[in-house]
Amino acid sequence: MTPQELAIASSQAMWAGDSASQHLGMRLSDVAPGRAVMTMQVRPEMTNGHKTCHGGYIFTLADSAFAFACNTYNQRTVAQMASVSFLAPAFAGDILTATAREQWRQGRGGIYDVRVANQSGEIIAEFRGHSRTVKGTHLPPAQSE
Known about the structure:
This protein is an alpha+beta fold.
């Protein structure tokens, strides 16, 4: 299996059990080794008292993109730490795109940056996640070879 095929197969296995991302209407639009792109439309019930998208939903979108990017190697990987900087508001109806890119990966750890933008390309948030591999794989050994 090529690295790209492994990334796709790992993301498909992960997506099958990702009820949270699916429930929020997220879509995984692209995946490659160490990279993932997810989109989500901001629904009215995702807005806060300022009538802007609640930061928790923006964080969740970025965190989901991060999760898919760091799980592209068929090794179960979780977040060890993550932070976000909110740069601009998002509103009901906006379509947000989170693009996660691997910055560094060695041993059991990795660092990934995620940029969240709206449909006009305006940057809404910057997210950085530190990953840690744990026991297990997404695919059976015979399937990932």
